[in-house]
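Let's practice the habit of predicting before peeking. Look at the sequence and jot down your guess about where helices and strands might fall. Then scroll down.
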Amino acid sequence: MVTLHVYYGLKSKPEKRIPELEKLAKWLAGWAKTLKRYGKAGHGHNLLALGDFNIDRVGDDLYDAFTSTGLSTPSELDDVPRTIFYDPEDSRKDMHYDQIAWFEGSRGIPRLTLEYKSGGFVNFTDSVMRDLTNTSLSWRMSDHFPLWVEFKV
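Done guessing? Here is the structure:
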């Protein structure tokens, strides 16, 4: 499992994050290709990448850079909110910063041997520090909803 946080300080020019996302995708692909030395072929190829990739939305240039080497994200996570500031009426706040991804077996990279079952997010705003505004909660807890995935074992 690899957790990452892509640089965010380029808000006015998010395309400047593309080189970092491309380099991460290439590094993950290269590393995943070497996993065969850690066990029999088809076993132990369970490399997961997760974290805050600061991707604006599925299908934009940032997402394409992230998935350029074959990383795949579960479609169930495409429509879940990522931030406590999510507003279904304002698509500008519907960012896909956080991701969970793995390789599906293309470009010479072994397929994840775990079988994906489901995924979602945890809305903690109704359960944690309920007396705080979202802004205050973002500083004390997080401004991101945790994502989760479940695999069959």
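How did you do? The chain has a mean pLDDT of 83.
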